[in-house]
Amino acid sequence: MLKGKTALVTGSTSGIGLGIAKALAQQGASIVLNGFGDVEGPRAEVAKLGVKVGYHGADMSKPAEIEAMMKYAAAEFGRVDILVNNAGIQHVAPVEDFPPEKWDAIIAINLSSAFHASRLAIPAMKAAGWGRIINVASVHGLVASAQKSAYVAAKHGLVGLTKVTALELATTGVTCNAICPGWVLTPLVQKQVDAKAEAMNLSNEEAKKLLLAEKEPSLQFTTPEELGGLAVFFCSPAANNTRGVAWNMDGGWAAQ
Ligand code: NAD
């Protein structure tokens, strides 16, 4: 379905981003990976699916590096047809103890990066008459949790940016939608499991169960594969007129 298209997925060396990159590759899209840490492992996992794979290590908190990444994608792949704004970090602390530099980093990486990548991707998508922008927000783009001020603010902002982008592009072939996961067991969430296990003297399994029981009626983690399926839907012809939605995959978290 996506043969001939190129998808750039930010923060795709791990977790949800890698799951989405693989799901889009399974549909035939060429993939540009981005993110830190091990690059060769994720690159090989995607290449195994038989598509062209590139990588750019832009730090998504730095607009100049985002611009360099978009230039790299255009030069090596011709155009970015699908932009998945997924890179994100988390920090947990009450407002009065929240380190200001962590606030700035979370807003830059989880919110401003999506603005910069989108503003640079939109002109070519409009010119081509087709494009997909998928913002990986969170259930925290719809509801709040204590101790996650910067994250909740960034994700609510990202849902807002999704709606505005969708409206501005409503008469074009370019859509913009958001994905709002609940708990997904990636390195980002494992850190929170570890913190809970340590604070409450629990085993890893007990801490995971407690995390789910506190928030997710389904008592299940959503998987990167399931989120990849939603990204594929947003790229499918069935979603041509799906614009500005924030679709939660959260085990019923936000329905409570
Ligand atoms: P993860 O830690 O497994 O992956 C994060 C990715 O972002 C990695 O590839 C990392 O290298 C990259 N990254 C971090 N900082 C970066 C930077 N400055 N520049 C470029 N890349 C950077 O986390 P994840 O759980 O897969 O999270 C991915 C997205 O999903 C995030 O936006 C997160 O907020 C969102 N999300 C996660 C969950 C969850 O439960 N895991 C739930 C809702 C939303």
From TrEMBL:
Annotated ranges, domain Ketoreductase: 5-173
Pfam hit, one: adh_short
InterPro entries, per the entry: 3-OHbutyrate_DH, KR_dom, NAD(P)-bd_dom_sf, Sc_DH/Rdtase_CS, SDR, SDR_fam
Organism superkingdom: Bacteria
Gene Ontology terms describing biological process: monocarboxylic acid metabolic process
GO molecular function, one term: 3-hydroxybutyrate dehydrogenase activity
Family, similarity comment: Belongs to the short-chain dehydrogenases/reductases (SDR) family.
PANTHER family (alphabetical): 3-OXOACYL-(ACYL-CARRIER-PROTEIN) REDUCTASE (PTHR42879), 3-OXOACYL-[ACYL-CARRIER-PROTEIN] REDUCTASE FABG (PTHR42879:SF2)
Protein name: 3-hydroxybutyrate dehydrogenase
Organism: Ramlibacter albus
